[in-house]
Specification:
The protein is built from 3 helices and 5 strands, in the order αββββααβ. It is globular and about 40 Å long. With about 100 residues, the protein is of the alpha+beta class. It has a 3-stranded mixed sheet with strand order 1-4-5, with helices on one face.
């Protein structure tokens, strides 16, 4: 299973969202420098390392923005520990305005 499919599965199970979009944005980061195994390297933009998560779920009602981000990070803790480099999280409760 791809990392994207795993993320979608975990978020669906954890939050039962009304809307969910998991976008692989790894290609947008090509050329960025990072440290890999103690050595500086230039990221080529391939793979599944950078994602944007757009999610609308009842579970976020009454939660602060920080608590929503923490909840998503907690649901994806194993992926983050395994090398998922970056998440851009756009959480909302039903009825809240979104930019997407």
């Amino acid at each position: 299973m791809s990392i994207q499919a795993t993320i979608e599965d975990k978020l669906n199970k954890a939050f039962s969202p009304e809307r969910l979009a998991v976008l692989n944005e790894s290609h947008l980061h090509a050329g960025h420098h990072h440290v890999d195994g103690g050595h500086e390297a230039v990221f080529d933009g391939s793979g599944e390392t950078h994602f944007r998560i757009r999610i609308v779920a009842p579970a976020f009602a009454g939660m602060s923005r920080i608590d929503r981000h923490r909840a998503v990070n907690d649901a994806l803790a194993a992926e983050l520990k395994a090398g998922l480099h970056a998440l851009a999280i756009e959480p909302a409760a039903p009825g809240e305005a979104t930019r997407w």
